[in-house]
Write a structure and sequence with these properties.
8 helices; five-stranded parallel β-sheet; alpha/beta; globular; about 180 residues
Amino acid sequence: MFEISNEIAYANVMVHAKRQTPDNATLGRSSWVHVVSRSSTDKWSPDEGAVLIEMLYRLRQGGHAPDFYVVTPFVIVQDILRSEIFKSGVIEWLGVEEPRDWLSKRVGTVHTVQGREAAIVFFVLGAPMGSQNGARAWAGGRPNLVNVAVTRAQTTIHVIGNRELWKSAGHFTTLDRFLPKSAS
């Protein structure tokens, strides 16, 4: 994650002072989970949402503390993710009295998590259709958006979205070079 941020936002001049932390034992190393969506509503991909929820269930089953953020470039994706995660019941392991409040703090656009960190960040891309080049160009055209998403993760980041469509969208080219494909 350091290398990605260093290249995107600091022209490779940042000094790496922090020791690298271990990968998550349940989900493995940081990766890009390639998802080809069968359908889309605006920028929302039900297939990307299903992959995220499956990964959250794996975290839960692995007994991990729920120390994660779910971020996306788009408000519509944020809103539907909150609803879908709540409906799935996966967050019951949190033991929080107000799950909707917890979701509003932990699931949001990249801009809403600036200044915060969690062990794991899930970066759900959205804009899954070939015709949504403008949305992808907007998201990839700003180094800050990708940089903030990556640097919120203390140990691992899992990018969820159509790699073939996103890998050439501005600063997502750096994510494409640094992140291995996931078998998820």
